[in-house]
Design a protein that fits this description.
By secondary structure, the protein is of the alpha+beta class. Helix content is about 40%, strand content about 15%. It has a single domain (about 40-200), classed as NADH Oxidase (3-Layer(aba) Sandwich). The protein contains eight helices and six strands; from the N terminus they run ααβαααβββαβαβα. The strands form two sheets. The protein has a four-stranded antiparallel β-sheet with strand order 1-2-6-5, covered by helices on one side. Strands 3-4 form a two-stranded antiparallel ribbon.
């Protein structure tokens, strides 16, 4: 006998076409304001707002619904400092030795370098880990399918939820990031996916003068 069970789809809502267009246009107008920020205020952010955004992230689709992610929320000054020190070591190695000239040229318009003060200034860091496998209640291992794609989807929803709440974010990816396992006491079976910096932008924050691709540049429609 199959263990496959179903329940009614009571949560779905359909909208009239005009309302559909209005809702998606409003969403685009709001999310189009989102900018990656590197200058943060140290103003405190209530933890319950972060928790609700994480609940939203937890609704993301995942391979076989195994939800192969773990989020570590860091607000303590001591731990944030440890993360900054470790991240800047990797960043200096990247900028001085690992990065190709082409890669550095691509980063030049963003004004980035190996100094990462925002890792201590922002009130929250959220370390995102992907889990290659999980454990059943009886202790057996279960393989996770598409953990990278699934964790990426959850992280995208998290960024969107935080923006919706009125907070700024920065997706930080020092490479390698194994130091996060050690500092945050996560098992080797989990791979650091991304470090998300969260808070209010500094009052005098500025962002690079860049643009996004147009719809025509990144979309194809096949109608036959």
């Amino acid at each position: 006998m199959s263990d496959y069970r179903t329940v009614p789809l009571d949560s779905y809502r359909e909208y009239p076409l005009d309302e559909m267009r209005e809702r998606v246009q409003e969403f685009y107008a709001d999310i189009d304001r989102r900018r990656t920020v590197r200058e943060f205020s140290n103003r405190p952010v209530p933890r319950d707002i972060i928790e609700m955004a994480l609940k939203a992230a937890g609704t993301a689709p995942s391979g076989a619904n195994l939800q192969p992610w773990h989020f570590v929320v860091v607000s303590g000054a001591e731990t944030k400092k440890k993360i900054r020190v470790a991240a800047e070591i990797e960043e200096r190695e990247f900028y001085e030795h690992r990065a190709s000239a082409e890669w550095l040229a691509a980063l030049a318009p963003l004004g980035t370098d190996s100094n990462k003060p925002f890792l201590e200034t922002a009130p929250f860091l959220i370390a995102v880990f992907l889990q290659k496998f999980g454990k059943l209640p009886d202790g057996r291992r279960v393989k996770h399918y598409y953990p990278v794609e699934s964790t990426g989807l959850a992280t995208g929803i998290l960024v969107t939820a935080l923006h919706q709440a009125g907070l700024a974010t920065l997706t930080h990816t020092p490479s390698p990031m194994k130091f996060l396992n050690e500092i945050l006491d996560r098992p080797k079976s989990e791979r650091p996916f991304l470090l998300l910096v969260v808070g209010y932008p500094a009052e005098d924050a500025e962002v690079p003068d860049i643009s996004r691709k147009s719809l025509e540049d990144f979309t194809s429609f096949i109608e036959s």
